[in-house]
Amino acid sequence: MENLSKVFESRIRLGVMSLLMVNDTMDFNTIKQMLNVTDGNLASHISALEKNRLIKIKKKIIGKKTNTTYTATDRGRKEFNDHLGALEKLIKMG
Amino acid sequence: MHVKYYYFTLHYKVLFQFINLMENKKEHLETLTSIRILMERSSKFISLSGMSGISAGIIAIVGAIAVSIYLNLGFFEQDRSIMQTGVRTNTNTETLTYLIITALIIFAISLVAVLYFSSKKAKKQNIIFWDNMAKRVFLNLFIFLFTGGIFCVILVYYGIYFLIVPAMLIFYGLALINVSKFTMNEVAQLGIIEIFLGIIASFIPVYPLLMWVIGFGILHLIYGGYVYLKYERVKA
């Protein structure tokens, strides 16, 4: 239980991490479409993940637009796996 | 909020804790399931429908029938003339043009059918059809199909007609195996069978129509029917 991370209590943050576990990089819009959330909502969750150093943000400038992509950090991968392990343990219990 | 308080509580409270624990469990299970679905949806092209396989199979068979009538060649008849190689000596260009145009038409209609049925399935699954994943799948498919196409043109140029159908089958099989990592496992199995059939066809090249009908017609029907029954009919 101690492994259940507070950061992942939010479904959206957990969703973002799930996506970044199986995709090397992903851009904001794809994540938004996948999770079916609003811009503002997703942005706040993403900045929370970044603050915890679970994901990295990369900004590229293509033409006039900036294209922002996200990648999971090693720390993020580890925490996510620990979190899943803890969830599994909880389910198996009892 | 969990088991920790078990021993210190009264009966009804223990019961309450127990229910709470069950609910938590259900919630955790749901979380895990949704994670799995998200991972699969984002890393795999899951809209490839069974119907698209079935339609591709029917189109291939119809095309083979058209060619069979034109060449006056039955499916089980041997075509000895195909073994005569050499740069367009006794093959008339009219026949060649007919065959190439028919093949291109079959390919184009099949492609449209696959795209149509897959986008329909995507709509049903409530996901965007033409996303990065779909682009990746089709790009990876086309690299192999394009190479195979060029190779067949070269075979035609040198008059090695008896290896054209085997080459089509082998390149198609390789293309399927190449994209299978982005989609269902069944695609890889279909690819292996196509390659296997292509190799058999290279050894007995006098049945080009039969091999074509098996590889592009019957195998597609079986594959499509299997995928349809396994993944799609259940939901209906």
Describe this structure in words.
The complex is a heterodimer of chains A (94) and B (236). Chain A is of the alpha+beta class. Helix content of chain A is 55%, strand content 19%. Chain A contains 4 helices and 3 strands; from the N terminus they run αβααββα. The model of chain A has no long low-confidence stretch (mean pLDDT 86). In chain B, helix 4 (132-158) packs antiparallel against helix 5 (164-180) and helix 5 runs antiparallel to helix 6. Chain B has helices spanning 11-43, 50-71, 93-125, 132-158, 164-180, 185-203, 208-232. Chain B is an all-alpha fold and 236 residues long. In chain B, 75% of the residues lie in helices and 0% in strands. The longest helix of chain B is centred in the first third of the chain and has 33 residues, at 11-43. Chain A binds chain B through residues 1, 11, 14-15, 18-19, 21-23, 26, 30, 33-35, 84, 87-88, 90-91, 93-94, and chain B through 2-3, 21, 24-25, 28-29, 31-32, 34-35, 38-39, 41-43, 128, 131-132.
What distance lies between the first and last C-alpha atoms of chain A, to the nearest angstrom? 14 Å
Oligomer: heterodimer
- N-to-C span of chain B: 41 Å
Overall shape of chain B: it is elongated
- Give the helix proportion of chain A (percent range): 55-70%
How much of the sequence lies in strands of chain A comes to 15-25%
Q: How does the major sheet of chain A shape up?
A: 3 strands, antiparallel
Mean pLDDT of chain B: 84
Summing up helix and strand content along with how strands pair, one would put the structural category of chain B as: mainly alpha
- Secondary-structure element order of chain B, as H and E? HHHHHHH
- Beta-strand proportion of chain B: under 5%
Strand tally of chain B is 0
Taken in chain order, the helices and strands of chain A follow as HEHHEEH
What is the residue-averaged pLDDT of chain A?
86
Shape of chain A: elongated
